């Protein structure tokens, strides 16, 4: 497995020399300053590639090459947007970057309600509170039908929170919900979010699936020709929010994705945290079911609560059996080696670490601290080494 690290380039206060000290050899990054839908030029890609290589790393995965909202909505003439996406893939391949992580979540990326929730023995973590999300949807956003999406006890706690919350509390909640949007682009105000959500009126699960299948049919053949592996990231959280459908949340959803265009280039980013936040998901079992098409892995853990809340746990804690999951990934690598595949190694990265020690107060990108991810990487490295020792040395 290839130890890698997500780095946000010019938006990241963690430097590549600091990343080098973690022991990771791969960088996962993107060109976050380019607006969605525009072409990533070879020159811009080459500049980032030179920056990464100059620091002693390999650029192992693009995360992410975003999909324009018009494609997700299936809105209007999309030929230019598809052509631009295909050209960006061609430019990436020409500069030696051949794995692309992306998602098909409508409007928002990962969503949390708290960015600095306290951890029992010190530190801070990301948290999704069902009552606070309900307070936002029902009382701040005023979304019609939002009450039906939450349990009665959650709605009761949401009303209490909203009544007691100050204006600063409400602004902090909005900022937390918007924090998953990467790059330099503006976050939504409540009014702006209402307007953006209106663009999805009439788009349910089946409509979104049809739009996603169209994207796959347009893009995967190009990726296959270029030798680029596309790997969809599961929904985070794996549930409908803001009245928007989520269609990459379960093992059945992943099977649908892979069957929509059955080609090796159409693959999965196995995110143990996103899948692990769904109460019905057995993450190691899901990984085994899609193992041949796992092109990338995000390894993190979450602790779930009965009301739909969850928070980021330490990498070897939480509800997912991380040792069992890594064993599946190592087994799949062994199968690929036996086939003689050159791409047998699966890049992985520690994800959403806790803010620990000097991470706190450094104003780092939420979920992407230095020390917290270093702890996670060290723990994952130990599991991989231990399982590898048990299985015996790999052939040269």
Output the radius of gyration: 20 Å
In which order are the strands of the major sheet placed?
A: 1-2-3-4-7-8-9-12
Mean pLDDT: 94
General shape = globular
Total domain count: 2
Helix content: 40-55%
Low-confidence stretches: none
Would you tell me which CATH topology of the largest domain applies? Answer: TIM Barrel
Distance between the termini: 15 Å
* Beta-strand content bin: 5-15%
What's the story with the biggest beta sheet? 8 strands, parallel, barrel
> Count the helices. How many?
14
Q: What's the CATH architecture name of the largest domain?
A: Alpha-Beta Barrel
Specify the CATH homologous superfamily of the largest domain.
Answer: Divalent-metal-dependent TIM barrel enzymes
What order do the helices and strands follow?
A: EHEHEHHEEEHHHHHEHEHHEEEHEH
What's the CATH class of the largest domain, please? Alpha Beta
Helix/sheet category: alpha/beta
Describe this structure as you would to a colleague.
Helix 4 (79-94) packs parallel to helix 9 (205-226), helix 12 runs parallel beside helix 13 and helix 13 (322-339) packs across helix 14 (371-391). The radius of gyration is 20 Å and the shape is globular. It has helices spanning 16-20, 42-54, 69-73, 79-94, 130-140, 152-164, 167-178, 190-198, 205-226, 251-260, 272-276, 283-290, 322-339, 371-391; strands spanning 2-6, 26-29, 58-63, 99-102, 114-118, 124-128, 229-232, 266-271, 294-299, 301-304, 310-313, 347-350. The protein has an 8-stranded parallel β-barrel, surrounded by 4 helices. Strands 5-6-11-10 form a 4-stranded antiparallel sheet. It has 2 domains: 2-108 and 203-305 and 317-391, TIM Barrel (Alpha-Beta Barrel), CATH 3.20.20; 114-197, no CATH class. It has 396 residues and is an alpha/beta fold. The two termini are 15 Å apart. 43% of the residues are buried. 42% of the residues lie in helices and 14% in strands.
